[in-house]
Design goal:
The complex is a heterotrimer.
Chain A: H1 4-12, H2 19-38, H3 41-57, H4 68-86, H5 104-107, H6 119-125, H7 129-140, H8 145-152, H9 156-177
Chain B: H1 10-15, H2 20-32, H3 34-52, H4 60-76, H5 83-96, H6 100-123, H7 129-150, H8 156-165, H9 174-186, H10 190-201, H11 207-219, H12 223-235, H13 241-250, H14 256-269
Helix pairs in contact in B: 5-7, 6-7, 7-8, 8-10, 9-10, 9-11, 10-12, 11-12, 12-14, 13-14
Chain C: H1 2-20, E1 28-33, E2 42-48, E3 53-58, E4 63-69, H2 71-80, H3 84-89, E5 106-111, E6 114-119, E7 126-133, E8 136-142, E9 148-153, E10 158-161, E11 167-173, E12 176-180, E13 185-191, E14 198-202, E15 207-211, E16 217-223, E17 228-230, E18 234-236, E19 243-248, E20 251-256, E21 260-264, E22 270-275, E23 280-284
Parallel strand pairs in C: 2-6, 2-8, 3-7, 3-9, 8-10, 9-11, 10-12, 11-13, 12-14, 13-15, 14-22, 15-23, 16-22, 17-23
Antiparallel strand pairs in C: 1-4, 4-7, 5-6, 16-21, 18-21, 19-20
Classes of the chains: A mainly alpha, B mainly alpha, C mainly beta.
């Protein structure tokens, strides 16, 4: 298999057809990245589309030698932050003390009506944004600490400690619900 | 590692992502440290629950929107190809994301078209010369794109098929050469890499290609492929290879069969 | 998709942890992996460093993985190599005993009928015996020692790569891609109807292919220092070797085609077999 980076370099050099393959590889994880945060299918799809649009538009900002995976998640984060800004809902990474009760999640039908929302998901929704993000990145996206560290621009060890704390907190919230 | 806090490592421990050393340390620590054990149990519970959260697939709508976006984008791009070819290009790009069954059907159609045109060329009727040439250029373009597309297939056998299509191409198109080199240097399957090497051998009279093959020799780690490359390069009697081969011999972990081969080649090159 | 599989794999992994604690003779582990879409075609990926891989098709709807390691031998050998440090590290703390001494990871991932088996076999020898439904495609790779054996598989494709080991595939369909550096490649096809090409490469080993009586195939063979043997049923193209001309800017380069061509029945998809020091055998079932 041709590496993501090699494909992206081809896109950068004008072979935009290679975008299709990158889309195939990443649309589901990126979609789930948004879905786990926002809970709304349509918004998550729009934001996913937005990520691929940005990749196409700003393909020149992909640096040779960089990891494509890290890059796409950085874009996805930015898309999500812009989305929150648009709806004037501040992610708690900007306002860490507030546990974000007014969240898009609460206003929209979460995931699918037919699907049972697991208690763990309820617990996850109660988490502050930054901790929720780190759980989504580490648990649902199969990202290694090294990658998470790169995406969040922190050290690997800080990422490890942060994930651990977030999981601990999730565990507490979960126990309260059970 | 002396008094290290192992707790943050438990998640990697559960996912089995730790190096042997840390893993063993944790395993032995777990046997004696009740607090750590408890923490592990707690993590396991949360993990078990998180694992129940399913991954959702987006609707087809997402893919459709994406393809629409791609089409709009390609339409705006300054034309590398004439418009009719760029349509074909689009069409092929869309093909990339569909299943290979369709591609096979497409290949069959292409072969038929190719045959038909070949037939007409031979009898020299029906299609006028100019039109004919235009059409065969399109066919060449199609073939090239099909080859490039097939090279992306997960099936190794289909990738060999793609490499074999390159034999039907008349010109050594830079894109095709690039794809063959990419395959030679990166394909996971050794037989596919060998097939790409063989396809490239046809162009080995070209100094650039030869340089590419020499370069590739430095990347290959499988003796089977190293030897095949050495064979191809030696055949071209390029004296500059002597240095390259000698450099390679200096490498510590060279397979004994490869060493033997290089020594044989050096004798030929003398 | 990879990240889905991770989630599933955790469940399987947890099973192992619980298993490992029980008996002293945990040199054998056996796992039944249920499939997400029972009955539908699937793929098996195995990558191992040291140890053999044996895969056979069965009528069941799940994948069964049995792994064996010879822990005792392993310990002896490491002690004899004088790794005292290793030994002292393994001494149990006061008042405790060893319950599991050869913990090795066997990571099995199932997602969408794709099953991936991973082992940490860098230091120990792990033999795998895997049963899969017959309609599975196989991607098997062993980097160092150990043979690969496959029996009774009808999936879309088999890829097998080894280094020191031999590759023996029986009752299988084309296409197949197999390569090994030192071992033999022995394949008995039950069906060669696929349009896709097959390829076999070895350096020191023999390549021995047996085709079904009714199959159509084009055979392309090459052995630098060995011989090529074919059955009477194979039509060999023994015209003079083709001379290939490559020309550029008026200069012509000639090279003699190294491949031998032949066909079985009316000819068909390409089966190429190449070895340097071994022989090539092309047989047709009587």
């Amino acid at each position: 298999m041709i590496s993501d980076e090699a494909l992206m370099m081809k896109v950068r050099s004008g072979d935009t057809g290679k975008m299709s393959l990158l889309f195939e590889r990443f649309n589901i994880p990126i979609y789930n990245f948004f879905l786990k945060f926002i809970g709304d299918k349509e918004i998550s799809q729009d934001l996913t589309q937005n990520v691929f649009y940005r990749i196409l538009k700003y393909n020149h900002s992909f640096k040779e030698g960089a990891s494509f995976k890290t890059w796409i998640y950085q874009i996805a984060r930015n898309v999500r932050i812009d989305h929150y800004k648009k709806y004037k809902i501040y992610s708690s990474s900007l306002n860490t003390d507030n546990i974000n009760e007014i969240n898009l999640t609460e206003n929209h039908d979460p995931i699918e009506k037919s699907e049972e929302i697991l208690l763990i998901q309820k617990a996850l929704r109660k988490m502050p944004e930054d901790k929720k993000e780190i759980i989504v990145l580490s648990q649902f996206q199969e990202l290694r600490y090294k990658e998470i560290a790169e995406i969040l621009n922190i050290t690997e060890n800080t990422a490890r400690v942060k994930v651990h704390r977030a999981i601990k907190e999730l565990s507490v919230l979960y126990k309260m619900l059970v | 590692m002396e008094k290290k806090d192992f707790k943050p490592y438990l998640i990697e421990y559960l996912k089995d992502e730790l190096d042997e050393e840390t893993k063993k340390e944790i395993q032995s620590k777990l046997k004696v440290d009740l607090e750590l054990q408890e923490e592990l149990n707690e993590m396991q519970v949360v993990f078990g629950e998180l694992n129940k959260v399913s991954i959702q697939k987006p609707d087809m709508q997402l893919k459709e929107n994406f393809q629409k976006m791609m089409e709009e984008n390609t339409a705006q791009a300054p034309g590398l190809f004439s418009s009719s070819i760029s349509n074909i290009q689009n069409w092929i790009n869309n093909f990339q994301v569909t299943i290979s069954f369709k591609q096979m059907a497409y290949a069959a159609v292409l072969l038929l078209v190719g045959f038909f045109i070949g037939y007409n060329q031979n009898t020299g009727t029906i299609i006028s010369g100019e039109k004919n040439q235009e059409l065969s250029m399109e066919i060449e373009e199609l073939r090239k794109n099909m080859m490039l597309t097939l090279l992306e297939q997960p099936s190794a056998s289909e990738r060999i098929k793609a490499v074999n299509i390159s034999y039907d191409l008349e010109d050594a198109d830079p894109k095709v050469i690039e794809a063959l080199f990419f395959t030679l240097n990166n394909d996971k399957n050794s037989n596919v890499r060998l097939a790409a090497l063989e396809a490239l051998t046809r162009y080995s009279f070209n100094k650039k290609i030869r340089n590419g093959l020499t370069e590739s020799l430095r990347h290959q780690n499988k003796p089977l492929i190293q030897i095949a490359l050495i064979d191809v390069l030696t055949e071209m009697h390029d004296k500059s290879l002597k240095k390259e081969f000698n450099d390679l011999l200096q490498q510590g972990e060279l397979d004994s069969d490869v060493k033997e081969k290089i020594n044989e080649s050096l004798e030929i090159l003398m | 998709m990879k990240y889905i599989s991770k989630i599933n794999s955790l469940l399987v992994l947890l099973m192992f942890f619980s298993l490992s604690g029980f008996s002293q003779e945990i040199s054998k582990k056996s796992v039944i992996v249920p499939l997400s879409k029972p009955g539908e075609p699937g793929k098996l990926y195995v990558e191992i460093h040291n140890g053999s891989i044996k895969v056979s098709g069965h009528d069941g709807k799940e994948v069964i993985v049995v792994s064996k390691t010879n822990a005792l031998e392993q310990q002896h050998s490491s002690n004899s190599e004088g790794e005292e440090k290793e030994k002292s590290k393994d001494n149990p703390p006061e008042g405790m005993r060893v319950v599991g001494n050869n913990a090795y990871a066997l990571d099995i991932i199932e997602s969408d009928n794709k099953v991936k088996v991973d082992t940490d076999s860098h230091y120990s020898n792990i033999d795998l015996e895997i049963q899969v439904p017959k309609n599975f495609a196989l991607y098997l790779e062993n980097h160092r020692n150990g043979n690969i054996e496959v029996d009774n598989i009808k999936g879309v494709e088999i890829n097998a790569e080894s280094h020191y080991g031999s590759i023996t595939l029986a009752n299988v369909n084309s296409p197949i891609l197999a390569d090994t550096h030192h071992g033999d490649i022995i394949v008995t096809f039950s069906d060669v109807n696929s349009e896709n090409p097959s390829a076999f490469s070895s350096y020191n080993g023999n390549i021995d292919l047996t085709f079904p009586k009714k199959g159509n195939a084009t055979i392309k063979t090459k052995s630098e220092r060995g011989n090529i043997y074919t059955d009477m049923a194979v039509t060999v193209n023994d015209s003079d070797p083709k001379v290939i001309t490559k020309s550029k800017n008026g200069t012509n380069y000639y090279s003699v085609e190294k491949w031998n061509y032949g066909k079985i029945n009316s000819g068909g998809p390409e089966f190429s077999a190449s070895t340097s020091k071994g022989n090539v055998y092309i047989r047709v079932q009587k």
